[in-house]
Structure formats: C-alpha cells, structure tokens
Amino acid sequence: VTVKKFSAEWCGPCRALAPVMNEIKGQFSNVKFEEYDVDNEVNEVMKYGITSVPTVIIEKDGNLIERFTGLSSKMAYINAINESLK
Question: Could you list the pLDDT tens digit for every one of the 86 residues in the chain?
C-alpha cells in the first residue's frame, strides 16, 4: 500500500496536512508514504490528473483505492489506509 501526498509550499491546507500525515506515517510501518510538490513533480501531477492541492491518493498493488481532494480528517485517512490493508 502506498500513500501519495500532492501538495505545494504556497498551499495553506497543505501545511496543515503535513503534521497529520507525519502522525499517520508513524502508525503504519507497513505502508509506503510518498510526497510530491506539484510545482516540481510535473510528470506525477500529469499521471494522476492533480488539479487541486492537497490531494492524497492511496494505492494498493498499483491500483487506486481512495482519492482525497482537499483537507480531510485524520480518521478519514486512517480508515482508508486500514481498508486498503485488508
């Protein structure tokens, strides 16, 4: 399972999401976390059709499981990760 976070330095909600993601990262040693700056990672942005930040994508075996656009609750991310681990 891979959690991909797309954000930007100039994005306020992205800055609010950073500590939440760090907490979540600490709870899942078996999940890979990747971060992409939309201003620098154009290929990934195009591949995933990112039009708004923050966007968090959860993949399992390369397949999209869940996509969050905008800021969601910590529990929403945790629940989605738990579901994808089943």
Answer: 999 999 999 999 999 999 999 999 999 999 999 999 999 999 999 999 999 999 999 999 999 999 999 999 999 999 999 999 99
Active site residue 14: yes
Q: What is the pTM of this model?
A: 0.95
Q: How far apart are CA 18 and CA 60, in angstroms?
A: 22
Does the annotation mark 22 as catalytic?
no
Given the residues 1, 3, 14, 81, the one annotated as active site: 14
Identify the active-site residue in 1, 3, 11, 58: 11
